[in-house]
Structure formats: C-alpha cells, structure tokens
Design brief:
single chain, alpha/beta, 4-stranded parallel sheet, 3-stranded antiparallel sheet, 9 helices, 50% helix
C-alpha cells in the first residue's frame, strides 16, 4: 500500500510498471498526517460514511475526509462507492506486507463550523476554514496513532514513512520549510523512540526513507524538476526509485524487475508496419518472455 501526497502516486506508478501488487491512494491524495489517520481509523474500525459525512457543493457531493477525485453528482452512488472502498481497503490491509506513507505538509485547514480537520477543501470558500500549522507534538501523536491502527489489524506490516519532496509553495517559501521541518522532527522523534522500544528485537515495524532529502541534497539542480519547478520530473523519480529499490527490495528480486522492464519496453515498441514479418517475430519473442516469467513466478504478471 502507498498512501499520501502526489509523490505517493509517483512511486505507485513504479510499483505498477514493475508489476508489484499494490494499492495506491484508494481515497485519493491525502496531504497531511491527520487526514491519513482519520480515514485509516474508518477503515480499521469499519466506520461507514453516512449522509452526515457528505455535503453538496458546485453540483457534486463531497466528503471532507477524502480527495475530490472521488466526488460524484449522485449522492447514493457516492456513498456506496466510499463504503465499498472502505471494505476493499480493510481487506487489502489484511494482506499487505508493506505500507508506505508519504506526508506532504503539516499545514491543515479546520472547518470553522465543526472544528473538523479536512483532507480537502473541495473549493469551499476559504473564509469557512482556519489554517493552522500542526505542532510537532500533535504530529508525533498522529504518527503513533497511525502505526497503532495499522498494527491492530496486521501486526506483521512493515511501515515505511517518507516526506514528499514536492514543495507546497502556495503556503509560501518560508512556510513550506517550517512545514517540512515539523514533519521531519516529528517523524525523527517518533521513529527514534520506536527504535529504542524495539531494541534487541529482529524487526522494527516502522522505518524512514529519505525521498525528501535525496531530491534536495543529492539532486540539487532544477533539471530534476518538472516545468513548474516544484514537482520532481521523471529523471528524479527514477533516481529515487533506484534508491528505494536498493534499500527495500531484496537483491534476488532485482533480476525479476529487470526482466519485467525488458518486457515493458518491448511492449511499448511502436512498429512502422504491424503486419511485417519482423514485428510478428517481435510479438512472438515478447509472448515467450512473458510465459517464461509467469511460469518462473507461478503467477500471471501480464
């Protein structure tokens, strides 16, 4: 599983490309720790969404706890879909081996009417919200609660925390740095405490992967950014993926990933003439490689 900011989806695309079974942001992009904790609580405790949790705005139904990509014009369809995702996510959580959580910001919006921290404002007028920077203490407690919720249903899951290298410049340059600093401090403190508690045990349930630090400290050049100069580009994602692969995937799996990549590149080949003898031989070769890989892994990847 991979939850969190848009960087979680960038990494999720890598899992998909390399045929690593994964679920990415079932509730859409979630930027801050409280948003992830809140919806995870619903999943684990099987708390369904009801009419009290949704609202109508700009001709669509929304829920403040999830991203607008799930919003819908039909109320019943929307509620049914949200609760279906809850059930599917609980089922997937029981089978998950690794849970990657990517925090994007410590800035949050609180709905004035209910004092609820929202995951997404859904273009509701900003004067209906108070904007806050979560304290390190609140962030630590949220991180700990998130870990406890995950372990309550699947204690064997390895949780990998990371901080998105995407800068939230709409908050301001200084404000973005404060936000990332709070996240780094909270994660560092909580994971250090967990490490001490796990001293002598064979497995630490939660670790940190430095995607934020890799981009800002190793790839210190705007050629690693998209045209908006905020999001990492494909070259940067590839670099960070290689770091992740080396640190979290067994060496024995690297050869399989190389085989998958070879097949993916061959499948992406665009012929000048689809009826040509050369292209038909190409298709036969790809088919044979897929069959060999599926047989070796005893599963159908393609």
């Amino acid at each position: 599983m991979s939850w969190g900011s848009c960087f979680a989806e960038s990494m999720g695309e890598k899992f998909s490309y390399y045929k690593i079974p994964s679920t990415v942001n079932p509730f859409g992009i979630l930027f801050h720790p409280l948003a992830i904790e809140n919806v995870l609580k619903r999943v684990v405790e099987e708390i369904p969404f009801t009419e009290n949790d949704i609202f109508y705005h700009n001709e669509q139904w929304h829920a403040f706890e999830v991203h607008s990509c799930l919003s819908h014009s039909d109320k019943d369809v929307f509620l049914n879909r949200l609760n279906q995702i809850l059930a599917e996510t609980k089922s997937n959580l029981l089978k998950t081996t690794h849970f990657i959580i990517t925090y994007g910001t410590a800035w949050v919006y609180r709905l004035k009417e209910t004092q609820q921290y929202v995951a997404n404002c859904h273009k509701v007028p900003q004067n209906q919200f108070d904007k806050e920077l979560l304290s390190i203490d609140i962030l630590e407690k949220s991180i700990q609660k998130t870990i406890e919720l995950i372990q309550s249903v699947n204690p064997e899951i390895q949780i990998i925390f990371t901080i998105s290298p995407v800068r939230h410049l709409k908050d301001g340059f200084v404000e973005n740095q404060r936000s990332k600093a709070h996240l780094i401090s909270a994660l560092g403190s909580r994971l250090s405490a967990i490490g001490s508690e796990q001293s002598g045990k064979t497995q630490n349930p939660a670790t940190y992967f430095p995607s934020y630090e890799i981009l800002l400290d190793e790839l210190r050049d705007y050629r690693f950014y998209d045209r908006d100069l905020v999001h990492p580009n494909g070259l940067a994602i590839d670099y960070i993926w290689e770091k992740f692969k080396d640190s979290h995937l067994e060496t024995s799996a690297h050869h399989t990933l190389n085989e998958v990549e070879q097949i993916q590149k061959m499948l992406a080949h665009q012929p000048f003439n689809e009826q040509s003898e050369g292209y038909q031989k190409h298709l036969t070769k790809v088919s044979n490689l897929i069959q060999q890989l599926n047989k070796k892994l005893n599963k159908s990847l393609f």
